[in-house]
Write a structure and sequence with these properties.
417 residues, alpha+beta, six-stranded mixed beta sheet, two-stranded antiparallel ribbon, 56% helix, globular
Amino acid sequence: MKDYTELLKKELIMALGCTEPIAIALAAAKAKEVLNADIVKAEIICSGNIIKNVKGVTVPNTGGMKGVEAASAIGFVAGDASLGLEVLSKVKDEDIAKAKELLKRDIISVGLKEGVENLDIEIKVWDKDGNDVDVEIKNKHTNIVKVVKNGKLLQVDNCYTHSTDDKLYEDLSLRGIYDFATNVDLSGLKDLLENQIVLNSRISDEGLTGKWGVAIGKILMDEDKSLRSVAKARAAAGSDARMSGCSLPVVINAGSGNQGITCTMPLVTFAEAKNYSREDLYRALIVSNLTALHIKRFIGRLSAFCGVTSAGVAAGAGICYMETKDFELMEHTVSNALMIASGMICDGAKPSCAAKIATAVDAGISAYYMAKNGKNFEAGDGLLKDSVEETIRSIGYVAKEGMKETDIVVLNTMISK
């Protein structure tokens, strides 16, 4: 049996706020830390997917500010790079005022970095004496691959190999995920999974107050109390709060808080409604989290393909596992869900992500109910292949390679006047 414990521990980490602006704040905090002086000029150069995912989302602990400039400014003023994706957790009110003053000085410029990986952030800063620092993050939101001060390389990482991470994903398969979830000793994962349940439930509850975003979760909950609708609502509500600047942390999946919430809340809802044991929920969460990671590894961390689609598929697989423990039904659930939900594009992080989460969760649940009733899509229907693994790869190929031009068109349309 493949042991995926380390992979889960590396991926199910806490983050405060949408991870793209947080990654910018992290790079900014690191640049300021190394410069160790007041900044007189800063250049932020990002890949298109970063700009797309920062444009419409509220940066947490900023009093409602949005955008690349805001994320970098608060990172310069109050970010703590040692905290990773919780880099902004110590921001005070006076720091927000200082960040706004920094923005008024108009010393921060933003540019598009073309011909690079989808997740690429480079920040260059200067002080009044001409000292300069260059910090770059690539491929993962916390992956600082380069730190240069005054031309001297202080830190470098070959971001294209990641042999350790690649090894963790070796032989990852739906069958392996099922076997691991069924047989693993939970003692080494219990605290991790309980933290995911507690934190993601907390932000979901906050979203259900209706104070955040366009309140998709609360609207769904108020309109329909069926189990399916409540599962959708609780997942969407977490995104309502998170996309609109709620300062509560979440446990992420594949670098995304929205995906972490989507992998969690539908399963928590089913477990509570049907009185499943905590152990059943833990093992189902293992299925959900690992299935999402499995699908996303072929798509990429950021792309033109909406990431919560993968998480909605994975939630369906987790619910199927919790209810049936039937591997064949789980295979059909994943294949069915990928056929239902494939094609939803990513047009950046913003309040409407909550509605997309609800759509993705609905697809996952529909796919499970199809499988349970012996009604499944057949190989040859669209992108559906002879096996679930081939289907996952076919979706990944279309999303990562086939939608490159779509990504460019989406970005250009978003930034055009």
